[in-house]
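ok, trying the design again with the full structure, not the truncated one.
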């Protein structure tokens, strides 16, 4: 989508109440998420060793921000997500099936090329991970977890609207989740791009989860890129909500059941990334030394936008914006943090 300001937009909350509300909704949601998924909050790294293989390669073209460390042989990279680090942490911390962790993740996406209403160079999210049993590596378990996350989001919205009655003008999010595979979505809208398919489907199904991100579809192209070494492409997906203020689908979470040794080996080969087999993290995983897990990220700024009715991500996070964006927002009376 391109940057846009809906005609007549006025924030439901003042700048003062917005800041208070962001802090409150983050605490409320995290508490509810931890209760429903049995998660423990932990501290997480801002950067990892470049040679460890722990950083997320995302779609493969994004350049991580890296730097050298004085009087050290290590070169560090700011994390792009904590997908791999969390799984290693669960092993090191001695967690057991049914329990997991959640942490704040802050990233810099220097190659973000969609600096619009929903995208920023700065990314903040809750990164969570939970140990599962072998019999949990199935679609039904994935769906059940998605529904728990949606429950946490909707419960948080209800509390926020009780505290700030003016937010009730937004209406309520749909608690019922519509599940559809990426292939079914392509079959339904063959002439549309992936983003256009999402918008078309979410108009009719305002809360949806698209299953199967990363593997090529029958068209020969994937619905969206996904690194081959954390999610199992057959057991993952994206959670989206229809966002009426912008008239588009808003992706709030990317998540999935993680690769086991077999699916990791297959996906590394399919993605042409066999060289990663020699990295420390990947060796451990291929030897079956890491627990089976499910996990993902949930955007903090995106959730703040969704629950507070904001139309630009800069209203809920501080970042760098183009001069054109700042001037347009100032003219419309929109305060960017």
């Amino acid at each position: 989508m391109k940057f846009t300001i809906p005609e007549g937009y006025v924030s439901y909350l003042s700048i003062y109440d917005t800041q208070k509300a962001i802090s409150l909704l983050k605490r409320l949601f995290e508490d509810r998420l931890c209760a429903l998924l049995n998660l423990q909050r932990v501290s997480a790294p801002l950067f990892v060793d470049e040679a460890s293989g722990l950083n997320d390669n995302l779609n493969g073209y994004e350049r991580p921000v890296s730097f050298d460390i004085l009087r050290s042989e290590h070169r560090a990279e700011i994390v792009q997500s904590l997908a791999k680090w969390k799984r290693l942490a669960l092993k090191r911390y001695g967690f057991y099936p049914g329990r997991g962790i959640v942490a704040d993740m802050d990233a810099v996406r220097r190659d973000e090329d969609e600096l619009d209403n929903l995208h920023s160079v700065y990314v903040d999210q809750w990164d969570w991970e939970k140990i599962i049993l072998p019999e949990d590596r199935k679609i039904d378990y994935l769906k059940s977890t998605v529904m728990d996350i949606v429950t946490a989001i909707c419960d948080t919205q209800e509390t926020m609207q009780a505290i700030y009655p003016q937010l009730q003008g937004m209406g309520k999010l749909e608690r019922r989740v519509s599940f559809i595979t990426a292939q079914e979505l392509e079959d339904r809208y063959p002439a549309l791009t992936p983003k256009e398919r999402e918008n078309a489907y979410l108009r009719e199904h305002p809360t949806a989860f698209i299953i199967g991100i990363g593997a090529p579809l029958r068209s020969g192209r994937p619905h969206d890129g996904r690194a081959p070494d954390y999610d199992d492409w057959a057991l993952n997906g994206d959670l989206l909500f229809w966002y009426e203020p912008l008239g588009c689908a808003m992706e709030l979470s990317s998540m999935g059941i993680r690769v086991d040794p077999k699916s990791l080996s297959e996906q590394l080969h399919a993605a042409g990334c066999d060289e990663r087999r020699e990295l420390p993290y990947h060796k451990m995983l291929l030897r079956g030394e890491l627990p089976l897990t499910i996990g993902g990220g949930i955007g903090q700024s995106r959730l703040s936008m969704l629950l507070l009715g904001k139309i630009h991500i800069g209203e809920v996070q501080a970042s760098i914006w183009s001069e054109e964006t700042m001037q347009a927002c100032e003219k419309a009376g929109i305060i960017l943090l």
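Keeping the full-length input from now on. The two ends are 21 Å apart (CA to CA).
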